[in-house]
Each structure stands twice: as structure tokens, then as C-alpha cells.
Amino acid sequence: xxxxxxxxxxxxxxxxxxxxxxxxxxxxxxxxxxxxxxxxxxxxxxxxxxxxxxxxxxxxxxxxxxxxxxxxxxxxxxxxxxxxxxxxxxxxxxxxxxxxxxxxxxxxxxxxxxxxxxxxxxxxxxxxxxxxxxxxxxxxxxxxxxxxxxxxxxxxxxxxxxxxxxxxxxxxxxxxxxxxxxxxxxxxxxxxxxxxxxxxxxxxxxxxxxxxxxxxxxxxxxxxxxxxxxxxxxxxxxxxxxxxxxxxxxxxxxxxxxxxxxxxxxxxxxxxxxxxxxxxxxxxxxxxxxxxxxxxxxxxxxxxxxxxxxxxxxxxxxxxxxxxxxxxxxxxxxxxxxxxx
Length: 341
Ligand code: DAH
Prior knowledge:
elongated, 9 strands, 2 domains, 11 helices, binds 3,4-dihydroxyphenylalanine, two-stranded antiparallel ribbon, alpha+beta, seven-stranded mixed sheet
């Protein structure tokens, strides 16, 4: 009986030698180690063996089983090694190829330009001041010289919140009040960046949300010429030192006098083209001398102090710098658009 185990072992080894790929090895494994395979058959045969010989038979049968399993595992390793060698020899893997570059995120074009703008004003001595996007109606309008029912409120269509008296700020100008109240009666030179919201029809030229940068300087001797010089320096740093500006009379309730600031068209250099609607000028921002009432609301004495202020739209600047013609791209989250910046 024990000699039949020797035959079994040599037969198993022989068949293993003929298994030349992993599929053949799996077939071998089932044939020898499956539920009804040769090994379990030979273990079952122990019942027919005279009791005296059983321990010896059992030990031997187990030794054969272990031997065959080890031979199988070794054969599998060799096969796997060979497969890898072959793949490498075929050139399937070129380990000298550079890895695939992962694509990290990048800053949104508005953020890039916002930072550039803040950088320029930083050089000019303006420090950033962060105000809030949810604002009191009283600060967004009232303290900026627009009491309830003032007709000028119509210039800003407003998103209201469920909390009475609180709105989404329609411009960054209410931040002026917070900045002045913190600094008064000392001198103040700040830029206030941030998102603003307006309840408007979305078109290629107007969005319901956009960034503004507000500027504010208050002191004992702040003049209109300081405003003009600051804005010219800013525009030349952003659009090139050949740029010219002009101030056009306008109206804002929180400044007196108020003005729109234009720069000569960057496309036709003032000759007149589609971008500047044949005027030769591009409207860049609103500005003015801080209204005495607003100075007072900010905690300054308008008899001794004066100030200038301005506000510009960041997306409009990005559009001018990049030649974009549709403001809706900004919040469409289209990667094809964003990755151009
Ligand atoms: N807040 C104005 C707007 O959103 C822009 C503006 C105009 C800001 C004149 C100013 C200013 O500080 O002096 O239309």
C-alpha cells in the first residue's frame, strides 16, 4: 500500500512538469488537490488499510501531499518569473518612460487678477481689509448716504436674506464704514476685495455675483489729485505705462464729487474700435471724494478730514486683459475655459 504512495508522488511530479502555463497549473491543482482529487482519494483509502499499518500510511500520505504542494508552489513561482521576464523582453514596459504628470489645481482667473490688483495697491501703500458678504442694509445703503427709499438704491438690485435688515452686499463700499470705524480718527489707506451680489438678469455682460476691489484713503490732507495720481499709477502698472486716464463727472451718493474713470483703449490705443465702442476710451472704475456724511458715519470729522474712494470690478479687468467677451464663463466651471489661465 505504501508503495502506491510512491507511485502517486512520482506521477504527480511528472504531470507537474508537463504543466507549462498558469492555466495548466490550475488544472493540475484541481486534479490533485480538489475535493475528489488524487490526494483526498488516497487519504480516504486509509480505511481499507490494516490497523497496524495505518499510522505509517497516514504519515506517508501527508508527506506526499506536502511534497506535491511545495512542488506546485515552486513551479508557479518559476512560471510567474518567466512571464515577467518575457514581458520585459518584449518591451511591454519601458521603465525609463517618465511618469504621468498629475495635474494640480490652479487659481481661478478672478483670484489671479485679484491678487495682482492687491499686489499693486500694496506697493502703493494700501493694506487689504476684509469685510463681509452678508451685510446690514443700513451699512450697504443707509450709512453710505442712501436712507430708506432713496432713489439711488435702484442702482443696485438687491438679494435679501430671511433675516430682516440683512442683505447680500451689492458692492464693496459698505466695507468703507467698517474700515473707517476701526481706524478713526487716524489715517487710513485700505483696499477691500470681495464678492458682491446683484439680483439681475444674467447676460454676457452682467452676472449676479462678481468681485470688486474698493479703495479708500482718509487723512487730514487727502485731495482729488491724490486720487488721480493713485489711479494713474495703478492703471499703468496693470495695463502698461503708456496708458492714459480721464475723469468723467458722474454720481454716487457716497462721494462728492463723483466720477467715472476711463483709460484709453488698450486695443486701438484711442483710435476707436469695437471694444471701446468707437469712443477710444474704456470705463474702468467709479471713484470720488468721500461724502462728508459718509466720513461722519465712519467716525471722522469732515471739517478736518477728507478722503477719496474708488471701486472696480475684477471680472471686467480680467476680460479686458484676456480679450474675453462673455462674463458667464467665470462661474460656469468649465475646465476648458479655466485651464487657459
Ligand atoms: N460701489 C460702486 C458700485 O458698485 C462703485 C464705486 C463708485 C465705489 C465710486 C466707490 C466710489 O468707492 O467712490 O457701483
